[in-house]
Design a protein that fits this description.
Layout lengths: L7 H9 L3 H15 L3 H11 L4 H16 L1 H12 L8 H15 L5 H14 L6 H12 L3 H9 L5 H9 L3 H12 L7 H8 L6 E4 L11 E2 L6 E3 L9 H5 L2 E3 L2 H11 L9 E4 L6 H13 L2 E6 L2 H12 L6 E4 L2 H7 L4 E7 L14 H4 L5 H18 E11 L8 H10 L4 E4 L1 H6 L16 E2 L2 H4 L5 E7 L1
Parallel strand pairs: 5-6, 5-8, 6-7, 8-9
Antiparallel strand pairs: 1-3, 1-4, 2-3, 9-12, 10-12, 11-12
Bound molecules: S-adenosylmethionine (SAM).
């Protein structure tokens, strides 16, 4: 998924790239110009440039590391250049960010980090900025990251701003993450969480039940009973992944789907609904679970192109699963009391997956949360109406933000005290996982997974039933 279509400029750049630094630079420009998603674009660019091994690893670390710590490098660049970053040419600024990451975040020798990075300005037809870029990078290279960070922290007293500077997160996000941890009485884990957001995640695979076994995929995951750690290299090259018998899927996403399918024994003939299914990762696991137990899954998605991805994901598992295109907010009124189990994996800010979406923390703003919370509340009310009395509903987000998680559930339970009742997701997960999860105490038996504690995305899982 990329936002706007690529501009002619970035297509042109893509055709001519070759070295790791050029690939990283092209991805940064596409992120800035075209709202591209680096984790989707970089693999294509690496293949096109025929980079592999150490070169591909260098380009990947340069791209993701620069994007992840962009706000930090912008502050260093502004200090070193003696001007606001808004006053710097956007092409020169991306070159400076790449140089800053090599100098402060990687162990690249300074002469290569400066010389070969400055060279990018010439290729990008920004030669007029070469002298400026060269001078700023030389200034940055005179001190290490700890010294620059100490300079940025000088005189800053607000704790969330300080943590944001130290761990390259915007302050509003630090505040939201702190309050999410505080719900569990675990605010002291904030720095561990911020550090975990900055570490690349290990790739995990799901062995779809009935189609493959986790033992055949790699080392078993700690928690998910259907998960395995992918060996080094391209996970798509594994034969089970190539045939659709296994998929790349975060362990937290696996647990969210299993919390619904294994909440209680399945009665053959049960009707299941995945209300917001695109692109189909959890739907594939649910379809495998449903098929094994004799339940019937329907998948719904509002964006037609994403519904097509769901069809593709389900093809290897069960091509008979019905995939619909429709607004999930309408289903409660159209099909009241119809489903025994419903997954609402709600559209959200994705703030729980910052490890794998390097640019996301700088692209999202605090203002993104409120409109999503409105949509989440509407989808949850619709899902509750579509649930058969006594059925199970899983409300899941890939965000730990309190406004997208506990506040949405609180509002539903307050509005519908006679209809909705919480179920204990923590107790369900205790019966599902290979080893015990250290879960904090949250209201209504909700489970919150965390990158720093569990090595998963920060998935929120609330189970509900309809009285
Ligand atoms: C978090 S993603 C779901 C991820 C999916 N469960 C998976 O594991 O691959 C949320 C999805 O909800 C879809 N969506 C957004 N608004 C919707 C609506 N009103 N009705 C149905 N789907 C919606 C988005 O297009 C997106 O594909």
């Amino acid at each position: 998924m990329t936002g706007r279509p690529q501009s002619e400029g970035s297509r042109q750049r893509a055709r001519t790239t070759a070295t790791p630094r050029q690939v990283a630079f092209d991805v940064l420009r596409a992120v800035a110009d075209d709202d591209a998603y680096a984790n989707l674009l970089l693999p294509t660019r690496l293949r096109r440039a025929r980079l592999s091994g150490a070169d591909a690893a260098f380009a990947t670390e340069l791209t993701y590391g620069t994007l992840r710590r962009r706000g930090h490098y912008d502050a260093v660049i502004a200090l070193a250049a003696g001007r606001s970053i808004d006053a710097i040419d956007p092409i020169a600024l991306d070159v400076l960010r790449l140089g800053a990451h090599q100098l402060l975040g990687m162990s690249t020798p300074a002469h290569a980090a400066v010389g070969e990075t400055v060279e990018l300005t010439r290729r990008a037809r920004a030669a007029r900025t070469t002298g400026f870029v060269n001078a700023v990078l030389r200034t940055i290279s005179r001190d290490d990251d700890a010294t620059w960070t100490a300079r940025l922290l000088d005189g800053v007293t607000d704790p969330d701003t300080r943590a944001g500077i130290a761990y390259a997160h915007p302050p509003w996000l630090v505040t939201a993450l702190r309050s999410a941890l505080a719900r569990e009485g675990r605010a002291s884990e904030l720095e561990a969480l911020l550090a975990a957001d900055n570490a690349p995640p290990r790739v995990t695979l799901v062995a779809l039940p009935g189609l493959s076994e986790p033992e055949s995929l790699g080392d078993l995951t700690l928690y998910s009973p259907v998960g395995a750690r992918s060996a080094a290299g391209d996970p798509a090259a594994h034969p089970a992944v190539a045939t659709g018998a296994a998929r790349v899927q975060d362990e937290g996403s696996q647990l969210a789907a299993l919390a619904l399918s294994r909440a209680r024994p399945v009665v053959a003939g049960e009707r299941w609904l995945d209300l917001c299914a695109g692109p189909g990762g959890k739907a594939a696991l649910l379809a495998a679970e449903a098929r094994a137990a004799g339940a019937v899954l329907t998948a719904n998605e509002v964006v037609p192109a994403r519904a097509e991805l769901v069809r593709k994901a389900l093809h290897a598992v069960d091509p008979a699963v019905e995939v619909r295109v429709g607004d999930g907010r309408a289903i409660g009124a159209l099909e009241p009391g119809s489903y025994d189990r419903i997954l609402l994996d709600a559209p959200c800010t994705g703030l729980g997956a910052l490890r794998r979406r390097p640019e996301a923390r700088w692209r999202k703003t605090a203002a993104d949360v409120a409109p999503l919370a409105v949509l989440q509340g509407e989808l949850l009310r619709s899902a509750l109406a579509a649930l058969r009395p006594g059925g199970v509903l899983a409300y899941v987000t890939c965000s730990p933000h309190p406004d997208e998680t506990t506040a949405i559930v609180d509002a539903l339970l307050t509005e519908h005290p006679a209809d909705a009742a919480p179920l204990d997701a923590r107790a369900v997960l205790a019966g599902v996982t290979r080893s015990p999860l250290d879960l904090g105490e949250l209201a209504h038996g909700a489970a919150q997974l965390w990158p720093h504690r569990h090595g998963t995305d920060a998935m929120f899982i609330q189970l509900l039933t309809r009285r």
